[in-house]
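W.,

You were right to be curious about this one. When I first looked at the sequence I had no strong expectations either way, so I just let the prediction run and decided to look at it fresh. Below is the sequence, 367 residues in total, followed by the output.
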Amino acid sequence: MKGMLAEIANMVKDFGSAPTFAEMPRKTLSDKGIAGPTAAHTIEEVHTPLNLAYLTFTTGSSAFQNIVGITFAELPQRVKASFTVLERAGLKPGDRVLVTYPPLVNVFSGESFKKYGLEWRFLVRSSRDAFLAALYEFQPKAVVGESSFIRASLEDAKHMGVADELPQNIILLTAGTPLDLELLPVAKAVLNAQVHDLYGCQEFGWLCMDGVPVRDDIQLVKLSGNAGQEMYELVVGGLPMGDSFPVSDTGHVCNKEGKIITYRRERTYPEYEVIVKATTLTSTVTLGRVARSILRIKGRVVKISPDVKTSAEHTVLELRPDYISAGIQEGIIIEGPEKTKFFDDMVQAQLDYQQKAKADPTWTKRN
């Protein structure tokens, strides 16, 4: 027996049904397309589940950064929305793009940039002088970055007397925080730049550009009981963003056709929770797993109605606010398939996962 175990010990070093640490697939920052410096992060290796395309984090502008999981099922719509952004901006395959904050690539997804055929680069250091140096050396067609950072950097260039050495006719895709309106005249004067206002998040990708949706499953829900200016909750594929905006017939400052004033957003109050009223799934057990996954990786509360209809032709969701605070007696119904696309993609992600056994045989649970 001792000799047999010794033989087994030698065999598993050479081959086996499970990988060694060295044989495990790796998703590096370079693989994700975000291998650039930031002053807000350290680099930490993690074991990423095989059912997730990649991991990222929220920006944490108002709280701790939360981990976000991106499923394979949602990638096609994220890529499609990103292509819409790039096409509306006038970018073409082969164009150079300077990204000032590497995690912003995760909102597009590095796959979007690769498939579109862009060449993108990051700053040597996450600083304003490094940004100006990169503009001069890289000569990008477009810049993706936070608007106040870009404005302050361009003002530095004017004060230092180097503004005339910067490239012209740049496309600025501002993102991450509400648009700094003071950027517009500065960008025009220094770079003769075309400024665009992107609204989105790590959880859902890009949602609006210059007040115009870039996904087909976006819906605006008017807030009831809201004092003052009318505000509208932005809902993506049946899931509320928690952000509300005014809607204006005069248009967005960057595009008169854009009605959603994304640079004047407010947190929704009271916030909505999502109740599943009907599902295409045959099992409420699977539906419960979907709800828990959405909470864990997207940070949205989804509950299941006690009388939920299964095996339905399409998904039916109800947005239910805090009735006591809002004084509302009924919720808002959202019916699929078009307007529940994101939710349905998460359902598909769960089904895809359940069709695959857990890959690691050393992790076994008893029922």
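Here's what jumped out at me. The longest strand covers residues 194-201. And, maybe more interesting for your project: The mean pLDDT is 91.

Coffee later to discuss?

I.
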